[in-house]
Amino acid sequence: ADGSCRFSLSLAPPYLAGYRLGRPESPTAGTTRTLSPAPGLHESLVMDAFAGEDLSGRLTSGVYLDGVYQGTLSADFHLDRLPPLPPAIAACEGDGHSFSDGQELCIEGEEGATVRYAVSGGIPLDAWDAWEDRSLTEAPAEFPPESFATLAGNRIILPTVGGQATFYRVAAYAVDAAGNRGEAAELPVIVAGKNIYLRND
User: What is the sign of the dihedral through the CA atoms of 132, 136, 140 and 141?
Assistant: First the structure.
């Protein structure tokens, strides 16, 4: 459940009681992908990796019955402690034929990873000169863990507030199949709304 690998013998009781795993008496030539356990006899062996590592290979262990060497058994392993990359957050390209007050964002994570995202409350900008206030877009955003939701698909829509230009901050991170959580990506967004005007002559 925690992503580590546990190696043990599969035998029905009472046959398992006298068996142990340990370093083989005649180990095969060791490589970075073929490993043997540390000295000693063990009921089970646990293998793990450091954060940021992605290791796979084959473990070869000696099998002992009441301390007497019986031979070796091998098993493949894969340890994934490599977090996924931060998702990419960007404005989606429109089709050029439809207009709305909202802004559609595309959020793309690594293939096979689950993306979780959070959106700050929208802040209306009452006048165009408010856009020059960079302190608003540079203010740090704090997203509590419970504010993140799982992204369904790869798009979200940010509406304007009262039809006015509205400021949002969007954050997203990815979680891969091994449970590794990646760093969060953040994007400040100003949703301008409809800014097309027609004059009837």
Answer: negative
Quickly count: other Cβ atoms within 10 Å of residue 186's Cβ: 16
Q: Is the dihedral of CA 149, 152, 154, 155 positive or negative?
A: negative
Element (H, E) at 169: strand 166-175
Q: Which amino acid is at 185?
A: A
Residue 177 burial (10 A CB sphere; 0-12, 13-18, 19+): exposed
| Sequential DSSP letters for 33-66 | TEE-PPSSEESEEEE---TT-EEEEEEEEEEEET
121-140 in b/e form (b: 16+ CB < 10 A) is ebbebeeeeeeeeeeeeeee
From first to last of its 201 residues, the chain has per-residue pLDDT tens of: 788 899 999 877 777 788 999 988 865 554 445 678 888 899 999 999 998 999 999 999 999 999 999 999 999 999 999 999 999 999 887 655 555 678 899 999 999 999 999 999 888 877 545 555 555 555 555 789 999 999 999 999 999 888 888 889 999 999 999 899 999 999 999 888 665 556 776
> Would the pTM of this model clear 0.85, i.e. be above it?
no
**Hey, what are 136's tokens?**
């608003």
Tokens linked to 20: 């142990």
